[in-house]
Write a structure and sequence with these properties.
The structure is a single chain. The chain is of the alpha/beta class. Helices cover 33% and strands 19% of the residues. The strands form 2 sheets. Strands 1, 2, 3, 6, 7, 8, 9, 10 and 11 form a 9-stranded mixed β-sheet that branches. The protein has a two-stranded antiparallel ribbon with strand order 4-5. Strand 9 and strand 10 form a beta hairpin. The longest helix is centred in the C-terminal third of the chain and has 21 residues.
Length: 334
């Protein structure tokens, strides 16, 4: 049986429209109550890379997440929003993009990934083993909520790349150094992370995407789509095809095929378009030349110091009661 990937139309960021579109799309992959079960915790993993206003579309849009929260609650699940931002804290990023207020309104905890666990899984750039967050590894249900974006180091950031945020804190920096501008080695690690976590459901925000100098400094592109499926590699295969990315330019897929992770060939995927003509593809400006995957050392040191002091200052200045005005938000702290 072919792996199904659904690409559906959504006209804008209205929680009811997002919810309606997702429910319609989910009908093609089976009942959602087989994935989201009553009283079980459901970790929602959006792209919360750094603090930016929602209309810059650096992060998964907060209203998109709101639509997913409504679905999880309707099915009796207990949603939790988790990520480990590359810059700043989860609460700081959530406040900047507007997700914090939505989380409070729905009584949904914001729980940053802060519990590193070293796995007995070696990659070429993690010789001591992959480090991921315990909550992500042990999750009863992990729903991946990536943002469709261009990426100046990898060409495109989607379903597989979003799971890198399950590596806690500044540990995400070290693999960039060890990779020594060998993107294939870096992508091997990303694919291994995907194979470990293997989310049962991924819903991608492509209503307004980022193009050009993504994942942080690009411009916006209105695509009007949501992408849904059960296989992150299959989703990235479909989207990279719709973006007309040549197979030899996207190392995540070549590594996934080589390692036998996910469904990485178009002929093994059934792509279903709902009010979307799949053959037309998606028009997104991609970087013509890719940047070195290796980070600049002085920049990383500055970022790490800034990250440390911002979090320490906020922990002492921000009143603890601010995050606890409603039950269940006690995890929301900077």
């Amino acid at each position: 049986m072919k792996q199904k990937v659904i690409v559906g139309k959504c006209k804008g960021y209205d929680a009811s429209l997002v919810k309606e579109a997702i429910l319609q799309m989910a009908g093609y992959i089976g009942p959602l109550n087989a994935i989201i079960r009553p009283q079980r915790e459901v970790i929602l993993k959006p792209n919360m890379i750094c603090a930016a206003e929602a209309d810059r579309h650096v992060t998964t849009h907060p209203v998109f997440i709101e639509g997913v929260i409504q679905i999880v609650k309707d099915l009796g699940g207990r949603p939790v929003i988790s990520d480990s931002p590359a810059f700043g804290s989860l609460v700081g990023v959530a406040k900047k993009c507007g997700l914090f207020d939505i989380a409070r309104r729905y009584n949904v905890p914001l729980r940053e990934f802060k519990q590193p666990v070293r796995l007995d899984l070696i990659t070429s750039i993690t010789p001591r083993g992959l480090v991921l967050d315990r909550a992500a590894i042990d999750a009863e249900c992990l729903i991946n909520l990536p943002k469709l974006k261009s990426h100046v180091q990898l060409i495109y950031s989607g379903a597989v790349k979003n799971l890198y945020g399950c590596m806690p804190g500044k540990r995400k920096v070290w693999p960039h150094f060890v990779a020594q501008n060998d993107t294939k080695r870096f992508c091997e690690m990303l694919v291994r992370i995907c194979a470990v976590l293997k989310p049962p459901l991924t819903i991608m925000d492509g209503i307004i995407a980022m193009q050009g100098r993504g994942p942080r400094k690009g411009s916006t592109a209105e695509l009007g789509v949501i992408v849904l499926g059960k296989d992150d590699v299959a989703i990235d295969t479909v989207i990279s095809g719709m973006l007309r990315i040549k197979e030899d330019r996207y190392d995540i897929l070549s590594m996934a095929r080589g390692l036998g992770v996910g469904t990485g060939r178009q002929e093994d995927i059934e792509t279903i378009g709902i009010d979307v003509d799949i053959s037309n593809g998606l028009k997104l400006e991609l970087p013509q030349e890719l940047d070195d995957i290796t980070f600049n050392l002085p920049r990383v040191i500055r970022s790490a110091v800034r990250h440390f002091f911002i979090k320490r200052i906020c922990e002492h200045i921000m009143p603890r009661s601010h995050a606890a005005r409603k039950p269940g938000i006690n995890d929301c702290k900077e």
